[in-house]
Amino acid sequence: MDVGTVNDRIFVNNSSIGIYPDIVEQREALRLQGHHKWTAFAMATLDVVRRHPGIAVTLDVDGHSRRVRSPFVAVGNNEYAVEGLRMGGRTRLDAGKLFVYVAPRSRTRDLPLLLFNAGVGRAARLGEFDIAAVTELRIHPAGTRRIAVALDGEVETRSTPLLYRVLPGALTVAVPRA
Hints:
By secondary structure, the chain is of the alpha+beta class. It is about 20% helix and about 35% strand.
């Protein structure tokens, strides 16, 4: 199967900047205070959604630059379903592409409605997401040299710009016969 990299650090599923790394960091701080994982996650999510300003980035793909402001930039190793009952699922792990997801028409406080629209299958029709398939992407967050990046659910601080690449077929996976 394919893997993705950000600044040469491998991820198997996805990577993101913006609201999600902030939620994870706050969740972990709450867990250190004794809160259970899901309680801490709910508390962190409510707090971060209320105060997160979103992020301004420049996305460089194939010699073209685009500036956006969004609550997040998510990069999936191959295509993720972004709405309906299969939301979060993937049909392929070997297409050789990274998929970039942004919500440039949404503010952080709009995310609960965006999630609802995605869940009921209306996000694409309403133009909630911009999605691009790429093999390489450079992300320049505005005004920072280092940024929190979620990689398969773990948060690390990385130097900017962030260089994302796909490594097709780089991971051999053994599975039982069907």
